[in-house]
Task: structure prediction
Amino acid sequence: MPGIVLRSDDNFDASYRRFKKQTDRNLIVTEARARRFHETKTEKRKKFLIASRKKMLKRLYMMRRYESRL
Result:
């Protein structure tokens, strides 16, 4: 669990920023959002297929963009 030690010269904004960085690195917020609602296997499969399709289209776009420069 992330935690920060408050320094005497830190203000609230700096401390909050350090805490937020730690939680982002540990993926705590994203994991909590994922566990908030139960996902069925079908929903997981759909998300995976959408993500893979998106990756493929991105690669295709980058490849076409690269080829157009040649």
